[in-house]
Specification:
The chain is built from twelve helices and 14 strands. The chain is of the alpha+beta class. The strands form two sheets. Strands 1, 2, 3, 4, 11, 12, 13 and 14 form an eight-stranded mixed sheet that branches. The chain has a six-stranded mixed sheet with strand order 7-6-8-5-9-10, sandwiched between helices. The longest helix has 16 residues, at 43-58. The chain starts with 19 loop residues before the first helix and ends with a helix.
Length: 349
């Protein structure tokens, strides 16, 4: 419907445009700003550059956005903090989950799968983690989304997914973070006959790979960050996949705070995908910073500029777009005093 200015507003019929096509400019800016730091051993510098670029371009997007998952509380982060207002201030009202560099260590070491990522949904659609910093996650693609149970044994979930996909367990591959806490999980997956793809970081990308068809990854299992779980839910929801989570505190301080805030039943409750991200008006955008078999990272092409590859997904329509952008941007400008402005101009111009 029209508001007083003649613009089409959110109204009761949902969001009337693919907001992901605007949000991808945000992840492109973050990736372009972070990429020069790839392999230089300083992930914090790359993250800081990406945060500044993401924040600057977010304010050009026509929306009334609120950061639900960001860089931390207001006192700990200068921008993109939880609760911060972003966008132009016009409808639609949106919740946002952002990670300017998902895989900071991957960026610092020049390893694959570092991405800039953002998920968005209408106001009050996203689950707020509160004091929960770690979450156990189980993610699969659309064919197996009704067959998973995070409370069931590992072996049973593998059997269920095997049946849904029509393949033996021996042909399943499970994405697991390579952490000491997963030693027993890895042993049981292997004993059941499935294969394990170990990654040091980046379980948002792991969730994308599990939910996206044809990647060679059939499931994501294990414990990762709770904020990353909410971001991942945006991708899984948009891809039509299945996801379950439950709080899995790893630190004593985290356990104590959760015990103060809720009873045991609530702490152990299974969080379904529909609770992590309610409704179908969800948008997801990601731009690769470092390259992988799934997406090309930021590339500097002589005579062309700087090339990015991005993924844009809208849940309601089911549309999935891979976007290759060539930005007329001199790589030297990124490190100059006006580097941020050069990046913003490149992606919004």
């Amino acid at each position: 419907m029209k508001d007083g200015s003649g613009r089409t507003s959110q109204g009761g019929g949902g969001i009337d445009r693919n907001l992901g096509m605007e949000l991808v400019r945000v992840t492109e800016a973050a990736a372009l700003s972070a990429a020069p730091h790839m392999g230089r051993g300083d992930g914090k510098a790359g993250d800081a550059a990406a945060v500044g670029a993401m924040r600057a371009v977010l304010d050009t997007v026509s929306m009334k956005g609120t950061i639900i998952i960001g860089e931390g509380e207001k006192d700990d982060a200068p921008m993109l903090f939880n609760g911060e207002a972003v966008g132009t201030g016009e409808d639609p009202e949106m919740d946002l989950a952002v990670d300017p560099v998902e895989g900071t260590r991957l960026l610092a070491l020049g390893r694959p799968n570092a991405i800039a990522v953002i998920a968005a949904a209408p106001r009050n659609s996203m689950w707020k983690p509160g004091s929960s910093y770690y979450m156990e996650k189980l993610v699969v693609g659309s064919e197996a989304r009704d067959r998973i149970d995070i409370t069931a044994p590992v072996e049973e979930n593998l059997r269920q997914v095997s049946g849904a996909l029509g393949r033996p367990v021996s042909q399943l591959t499970v994405f697991v973070l390579d952490k000491p806490r997963h030693k027993e999980l890895i042993r049981r997956i292997r004993k059941a006959g499935a294969r394990v793809a170990l990654h040091t970081d980046g379980d948002v990308m792991g969730a994308i790979l599990a939910a996206y068809p044809g990647t060679g990854i059939d499931l994501l299992m294990g414990i990762g960050g709770t904020p990353e779980g909410v971001i991942a839910a945006g991708a899984v929801k948009a891809l039509g996949g299945g996801m379950q989570g439950r709080r899995a505190p790893q630190l004593q301080a985290e356990r104590e705070r959760l015990a103060e805030e809720m009873d045991e039943a609530e702490r152990e409750r299974v969080l379904e995908l529909e609770e992590l991200l309610r409704g179908d008006d969800a948008f997801f955008a990601a731009t690769a910073i470092t390259g992988s078999a799934f997406m090309d990272g930021v590339r500097y092409d002589q005579g062309l500029g700087v090339t990015t590859e991005s993924l844009v997904i809208r849940a309601r329509s089911g549309s999935i777009r891979r976007i290759q952008g060539t930005h007329r941007l001199n790589p030297e400008h990124i490190f100059a005093d006006r580097g941020l402005q050069a990046v913003v101009t490149a992606v919004t111009g």
